[in-house]
Amino acid sequence: MFGSAFSITDGSGVFISSLTLTIIVSAIVIVGIVLVAVIITLAVLLSSCINRSTTTVEEKTYSGLCASYHINAELNNVQDSVFPAVCEEYMLNYLHGGQYLKDIEVSVDLAQSYLRTLQLQHDQKNAVILDIDETALSSVLHSENIIRRNKGSTNRDWNTWLNDTMITPIVPVLALYQELLAANWTIIFISERAENKFDLTVKSLQKYGYENWTSLILRSSDDSGDTVQSYKLSKRKEIENQGYQIMAVLGDQWSDIAEPAPFTKTFKLPNPFYRVI
Ligand SMILES: *[C@@H]1O[C@H](CO)[C@@H](O)[C@H](O)[C@H]1NC(C)=O
Ligand SMILES: *[C@@H]1O[C@H](CO)[C@@H](O)[C@H](O)[C@H]1NC(C)=O
Ligand SMILES: *[C@@H]1O[C@H](CO)[C@@H](O)[C@H](O)[C@H]1NC(C)=O
After folding, report:
1. Whose CA is nearest to atom 12 of ligand 3?
2. What are 99-117's pLDDT values in tens digits?
3. I want to staple 169 with a disulfide (CB 3.0 to 4.6 A). Which of 10, 84, 208, 219 is the partner?
């Protein structure tokens, strides 16, 4: 007889030593533990997978909704309605994440390509009209403040945002400006900023390298009864009456570019943050 006195026998009469039994029981316990661990792991993975796919669906829904609000803001359809609060992150990401700058670059590239095709004639007076805010210069903190309005941030007066500590240049427009200047284009700024902001505006423009423009037109209190659109149109007409052909107008607002002359091409820069009518 083999084995110890502690050998047992199963129903079939096979003898199993206590060592073998220990090994088998241990193996069963280990397999059991491994199985439980695998099941728990799978359950955790599955539930995180479900959570993730739920989030993805929600994110997609929101980003689809916010992309629609975004384009409708550009199209001027949002009017004075408030952007859905759920789109705040989307809009901040648009402003700071690179796409806003990309959209500006594409508009400016299109203007640049067009203007490069034109041969300036020395006997002709050709001009390009530029808007200032959100075109030549950016008041990015103001745009951010508008996006965050649902969080009850302070709604400061527009004039406080004109402080040049809060203004930065829109680099693609500055590059185009300098190219046009070097090619002897007449460059005229028309802005809805008030005339009493003239010195501040000159300072902000020059600080960042906008220099030697032909004319800087700001709004006098005389035409403050007009809409911005009719004010800008009447200033363009005055320029044309001085013998200029306005070849291009660049601005972030529809009111900057509305009712162009037949030979004037317009380039709309993005601004889904606010509208000026
Ligand atoms: C601009 O802001 C700075 C810093 O807050 C302030 O010292 C300065 O007086 C402001 N300038 C104007 C013109 O409001
Ligand atoms: C621009 O005008 C200046 C002065 O009239 C002239 O010397 C220069 O050659 C012109 N530049 C171009 C690119 O036409
Ligand atoms: C503006 O004109 C001044 C004087 O002619 C010149 O020194 C300066 O370089 C010009 N600036 C630019 C950006 O062309």
Report:
1. 211
2. 999 999 999 999 999 999 9
3. 208
